[in-house]
Specification:
Distance between the termini: 21 Å
CATH superfamily of one domain: Winged helix-like DNA-binding domain superfamily/Winged helix DNA-binding domain
Helix content: 40-55%
Number of helices: 9
Radius of gyration: 22 Å
């Protein structure tokens, strides 16, 4: 039997650090290891505390996670699944019932809940292991929809190089609002709200770069080669991280299955 969320539940605009980690882990495991989902408290605790794809790292106890699950159940974000034997409770998220997110948007929020602020290039790489996101343009469509609903924040326009995004479920006291980075904007388009000191620094930086002599000959080739090598290293690092994440998920899944089997044998 599965609980149903309360009707006409109040809107959700803030989540605590622990609520974000537990909810993000439930979302991730539902995407990546559906055969082991819904999760027991033991498996969920291991998922919250895993070393890969998490920032910051945590050391929650099963009691900690159970307390957070009770909070999320009251908010209509999590439900308990009662098994036929009644011996082991399992838990599932209700994000699709409480919000109107597309699957790419849900995958994006999952990664942001688990890691926080990140570039859209890294975000696409990580979210694509859960839902296919074929291009950065496709990702930007999902991000714009989240921004329109006030669930996403960015430090500059989504089309700008170097843009970073984050979820918007922080509490007011966490001071996690992204400042708009005027240095990433088009030249000559300073924001009217930019502090004078930052505006002056930006102007001096542009003046210095304008006055600097252009690179010529072998210097251009050296810079181009270095840039290409750096891009290749970043791509290889992302691929390795994705493989590590997949192995971690598989180990967690197998551990949950073994734990369930041991409990059944003892029962």
């Amino acid at each position: 039997m599965i609980e149903e969320p309360e009707q006409d539940a109040p809107p959700i605009t803030e989540l605590s650090k622990a609520q974000r980690r537990v909810l993000g882990t439930l979302l991730e495991k539902a995407f990546t290891t559906p055969e082991a989902y819904p999760l027991t408290v033991k498996a969920l605790t291991a998922g919250c505390n895993q070393k890969s794809n998490r920032h910051p790292l945590t050391e929650y106890s099963e009691d900690d996670v159970h307390d957070v699950l009770d909070q999320l159940r009251q908010m209509g974000l999590v439900a308990v699944v009662h098994t036929e034997t009644g011996r082991t409770e399992r838990f599932r998220h209700y994000m699709r019932k409480r919000f109107t997110f597309s699957e790419p948007q849900l995958a994006v929020l999952t990664e942001l809940l688990l890691r926080g602020r990140q570039s859209i290039g890294d975000l696409r790489s990580r979210a694509s292991r859960m839902v296919a996101i074929e291009s950065l343009d496709e990702l930007r469509v999902a991000l714009r929809g989240l921004m329109e609903q006030k669930y996403l924040q960015a430090n500059t326009g989504l089309e700008r190089r170097g843009v970073e995004v984050d979820h918007n479920f922080y509490g007011a006291g966490e001071n996690k609002k992204l400042d708009w980075d005027a240095g990433l904007e088009d030249e000559g388009e300073e924001r009217s709200s930019q502090p004078p000191a930052r505006a002056q620094a930006a102007a001096e930086s542009r003046a210095t770069s304008t006055a600097a002599p252009p690179l010529r000959g072998p210097h251009v080739a050296e810079v181009s080669a270095g840039s290409a090598a750096l891009t290749q290293l970043r791509d290889e690092n992302r691929e390795l991280q994705t493989r590590v994440d997949s192995l971690e998920h598989e180990v967690s899944r197998l551990k949950g299955l073994v734990d369930d089997l041991v409990r059944d044998l003892r029962g």
